[in-house]
Amino acid sequence: MTTLVESEEHKSLRAAVAAFARTQPHTLDAEDSKRLWQAAAKLGYIGVNLPEAYGGGGAGITELSLVLEELGAAGNPLLMMIVSPAICGTVIARFGTEEQKREWLPRLADGTRLMAFGITEPDAGSNSHRITTTARRDAATGDWLLTGRKVFVSGVDIADATLIVGRTEDARTGRLKPCLFIVPRDAPGFERRPIDMELSAVERQFELTLDDVRLPADALVGDEDAGLLQLFAGLNPERVMTAAFGIGMGRHALTRALDYARERTVWKTPIGAHQAIAHPLAQAHIELELARLMMQKAAHLYDAGDDVGAGEAANMAKYAAGEACVKAVDQAAHTLGGNGLTREYGLGRLITASRVARIAPVSREMILNYVSHQTLGLPKSY
Fold it and tell me: How far apart are CA 195 and CA 253, in angstroms?
C-alpha cells in the first residue's frame, strides 16, 4: 500500500525539502519566518497541494504534510502552512467560486498572500453547533453583515484576509447553519487584539471582534446550505497538518538528543550507550514513526476523496502525533539534563510548543470522544 511505503517521488520530495530546510536559519523572528515562507513558496512547497490551473503543484495534503514535517524536523516549522494552504486553500479550491479561486489560489500558492482561519469562540470553543458569530443579509443591498467574536486565531496580523466561520438563519427552519466568509484584514468593524501568550512562537494569537462587518455577497464561500460539509473539508486537512507539525517537532527534538547522547561522555562512555538513555529515545522514535503512518493514511484517504474515512484517520493521526511529540520533546530535554533548558540547545521552548499538538485544533479528549462514539459505537457522552 502507498500508505506503508513511500513512492520514489515522495522520497525525492522529502529529501529536497530536508536539504532546503537545513540551509535556512531557525525562524526565531518574524522576518526570518517571512523569508523562509517566500523561499519555500518560490520552490513550490507552500502551494504544492493547490490546483495546477491556479498556480499550485497539483498534488495533495499528502505532499503538503510531508513538506511541513520536514521543515519541522529541521527546526523550521511554519505554523501558517496548517492554515493558509491546507485549510483556506483547500476550502476555496473545492468550494469557492471561479472568481474566488482566481483571486486567492495563485497568490496563496506563490506566497504573496496569506489567509488566517477563525472558528474558535470564547464560549463555544471549536463546537460549530454553538458558534454565535452570525451573518445576516442586508435586504436593500444583498451584502452580508457579520457580528461576533473569535479567539486563538493565528497570524491575523500577517494575513491578508481571514476565513471566518459564521452562521446564517435557515429560512425554512429558523435554525442557524454554519457558513464561511472571506473577511479582508482592513474591513471596517473587523478588529483584532493580540492575546498575551507564554508560548514562544513567531505566529501570534489574536482575539477578533466583528461588529456588523459589511461584506459583499460574493464573500460567501461555496453553498450557504452546505456550510457544514465545507467546514469539515477544511478541518480534516487541519488535523493531518497538525500531526505533521507535531511529528516534525518531535523529530527535531529527537535529533538534538541523539547528537548529544553520542557526543556527551561520562566515565569515558557516551551516555547514549546506557540503556536508560537509549531505550526511551528508541521508544520516542517508534511512536513518532507510528504516528507518521496514521498521518499518511489520513492524508491518502483525504486525497482519494474519502472524507468520512479521512475524518476518522485524521483525528487518530492528530492524537497519536500529539502524544508522540510531547513524549519525544520531554525525553530529549531530559537527555540533555540542564542543557536541555538552555537557549543554546533550543529544547526548552519546545516543551511549551509541543503542548499545542495535544491541545489544538481539537483536544485529545474530544478525539477520544469521537473515536468512542463514531468508531466504537459507544453511547454519546456530549
Answer: 27
Contact predicate 354/329, CB 8 Å: yes
Burial of 139: CB neighbours in 10 Å, binned 0-12, 13-18, 19+: exposed
The answer, yes or no, to whether residue 225 has pLDDT greater than 60, is yes
- Environment class of residue 76 by beta-carbon count within 10 Å: exposed (0-12), middle (13-18) or buried (19+)? buried
pLDDT digits (tens, 9 = 90+) for 151-178: 999 999 999 999 999 988 764 555 667 8
Query: d(Cα 116, Cα 162) in Å, to the nearest integer?
Result: 4
Q: Indicate the length of the chain as a whole number.
A: 382
For the chain, the average pLDDT equals 93
Angle at 68 between CA 179 and CA 29, to 5 degrees: 95
**Coarse DSSP helix, strand, coil percentages of the chain, rounded to the nearest 5 percent:** 55, 15, 30
- Which whole-number Å values give the CA distances from 132 to 52, 80, 109, 175, in the listed order? 37, 25, 32, 12
Task: In whole angstroms, give the CA distance from residue 120 to residue 150.
Answer: 6
pLDDT for position 3:
55
Contacts of residue 72, defined as CB under 8 A and 6 or more positions apart, other chains included, come to 244, 245, 247, 248, 249, 251, 252
Indicate whether this model's pTM tops 0.90.
Answer: yes
d(CA 65, CA 14): 10
> Which whole-number Å values give the CA distances from 231 to 22, 77, 127, 320, in the listed order?
35, 25, 12, 23
Where would I find the beta strands (DSSP E) of 244-335? Answer: 265-266, 269-270
Per the CB < 8 A criterion, the answer to whether 90 and 233 are in contact is: yes
pLDDT at 199: 81
In which residue are the cell numbers 483525528 written?
Answer: 315
Rg (CA), the chain: 21
Q: DSSP string covering 53-117, please?
A: GGTS-S--HHHHHHHHHHHHHTT---THHIIIIIIIIHHHHHH--HHHHHHHHHHHHTTS--EEE
Rounded Cα gap, residues 246 and 376, in angstroms: 26
Rounded to an integer, what distance in angstroms lies between the CA atom of residue 60 and that of residue 68? 13
Residue 216 and residue 250: Cα distance in Å, rounded? 44
Helix (H) / strand (E) element for 137: namely strand 134-137
